[in-house]
Amino acid sequence: MAMRNKAGMLRNRQRQEIRKVPARVDIKVGFACNNHCRFCVQGQKRLRFGRREKQELLRILSESKNRYHGVVFTGGEPTLHPDLVDLVTEARRLGYLSIQIQSNGRMFAYRDLCRRLVDAGANEFSPALHGHRAELHDFLTTVAGSFSQTVAGIENLKKLGQRVVTNTVITRSNFRHLTDIAKLLVGLGVDQFQLAFVHPVGSALENFSSIVPRLSLLEPFVKEALDVGLSAGAIVMTEAIPYCFMMGYEELVGERIMPSTRIFDAEGVIEEYKEYRLVEGKAKGPPCSRCTRTSYCEGPWREYPERFGWSEFTPVDDK
Q1: Each residue of 201-222: pLDDT tens digit?
Q2: DSSP letter at 255?
Q3: Residues whose CB falls within 8 Å of the CB of residue 100, separated by 6 or more in sequence, listed in order
Q4: Using CA of residue 53, residue 167, residue 170, residue 250, what is the dihedral sign?
Q5: Whether pTM exceeds 0.85
Q6: Where in the chain are the domains?
Q7: Which of 165, 175, 215, 310 is an S-S bond match for 192, by CB 3.0 to 4.6 Å?
Q8: Each residue of 188-222: b (16+ CB within 10 Å) or e?
Q9: What pLDDT shows up at residue 54?
Q10: Beta-strand runs (E) in the chain
């Protein structure tokens, strides 16, 4: 009961914060990246697709403005696109309420770029931090020095008074260190952090055996890390961790409050990301049919039970 109450402490605050997140359009501006993460869902797209031209991106912004009030510039690594500041400027001119830069965070180490993006209209930044120390983070990104740059980037953004929402991908290498990662994020003053179970596609699928942890092993580490954030008053959530591994922390399951999102990907448009997750991304198995949470739990990424089966999944019975 104590665990359940602790997770429920921020129920109202989290709901209030999420209400501020409008339906959004997610624009992948290109697939070049200055990291080469072992778990990257984009895999080798950097070799197959170039960056989108400025005029195409301006058209997407213009065509999306009446339906969506938030925009996420992502990739690849969006800060490598030479027209990013101009795109942010146009997004503000068009009236987008939320303008987020989703990044590995390294280029935010350059304060001038941060200031230019803020002055142009960016009002939310989502860097990724996957370790509490350079050895771990740099191992996962395969780039020496990436940890120090990302940390410096977060510090720069907070000095500029910006909202920082971080993402940490949970892997075999870092799940035992999630509490230390959470402590670092709290110490850096991030406004929100998300712990996302690795999606076994792209590079993560190629490296499955060394990257993907067992859900049953990571549960206590995830909950302890969430407690760190809750105690500090941060907004915290998870992604792609089914409810049967989140007992007592159900309010922190991110899928329940993710905004409606349209994604401009490399090979087409995903009209509604939630529908894509349910139809193509996630899976349900025999235990799910006996679970009282099955009507709103999305289940795991389908590649997980294809490799590990369903023996770890225990149906929840609220009766």
Answers
A1: 999 999 999 999 999 999 999 9
A2: G
A3: 24, 70, 71, 72, 73, 122, 123, 124, 125, 126, 165
A4: negative
A5: yes
A6: 2-308
A7: 165
A8: bebbbbbbbbbbbbbbbbbbbeebbbebeebbebb
A9: 97
A10: 24-28, 70-74, 98-102, 124-126, 165-170, 192-197, 235-239, 261-265, 268-270
The token pair that represents 272 in the structure block: 């509604």
Q: Which amino acid is at 110?
A: Y
Higher confidence at residue 1 or residue 135? 135
How far, rounded to the nearest angstrom, does the alpha carbon of residue 175 sit from its chain's CA centroid? 16
Contact 216, 206 (CB under 8 A): no
Largest distance between two CA atoms of the chain? 57
Closest by CA position to 212, among listed 74, 36, 41, 47 = 41
Segment 78-85 shows an average pLDDT of 98
Strand duo 70-74 + 268-270: pairing:
unpaired
Q: Are 155 and 105 in contact (CB under 8 A)?
A: no
Distance spanning both ends of the chain, measured CA to CA: 16
CB 171 within 8 A of CB 205: no
Q: What is the pLDDT of residues 87-102, one digit of tens each?
A: 999 999 999 999 999 9
Region of residue 145 (phi > 0: left; psi between -120 and 50: alpha; otherwise: beta) = left
User: 2-308: which CATH number, 1.10.10.10, 3.20.20.70, 3.90.1510.10, 3.30.1360.70?
Assistant: 3.20.20.70
What percent of the chain stands above pLDDT 70? 93
Q: What is the pLDDT of residues 36-76, one digit of tens each?
A: 999 999 988 887 888 999 999 999 999 999 999 999 999 99
Which residue is it, tokens 């920082």? 164
| CA within 13 Å, CB half, 172 | 12
Indicate left, alpha or beta for 76 from its phi (over 0: left) and psi (-120 to 50: alpha): left
**Residue 65, token pair as written in the block:** 């403005």
What is the C-alpha R_g of the chain?
Answer: 19
